[in-house]
Amino acid sequence: MARSVAQASHDGIDLSGTGSCICFNVRKTARAVTQLYDAALQPFGLRSTQFAFLVAIAKRSPIGVRELGELLVTDPTTISRSLRKLELSGHILIRPGLDRRERFVGLTRFGRSALKKSIPRWRKVQQMLLSKFSESQWRDARERLDEIKNIALEAYSKQSCIGVEDSDPH
What we know:
By secondary structure, this protein is mainly alpha-helical. Helices cover 59% and strands 9% of the residues. Strand 1 (9-10) and strand 2 form a beta hairpin.
């Protein structure tokens, strides 16, 4: 007998409401959009995540690693790994700051060139997606996404919804 995806219980596990999971739906959308931008940027040897790093660095160069992580809402492990790949590929240069714990990131000539060459392809994808929405629809969607991000960041910083007392991991 076929099971319904909307089925509330599966083998005694209450799955009601999981289909409307904000995390799942945002990530599903992000994966689809990422695939589209990745395909457009592939001829330049960039992925959409790397493009975002290069744009942020170009806008604020030189930028501290911690500030870059906050700007991109990226955890320290992910930012270190991503920056290392960009450094090894010759796109960025990481320099020490005055404080031993401080590091600053800037684009190399190669990184600026790759960014400059990839922006027209990025613009084509951006325009194609934006053409499917009115200006107010996209503005409203961005505002809702920012609200979700801000709520999640605030809750995470307070650990307000993931208390240990709420659940038993076993």
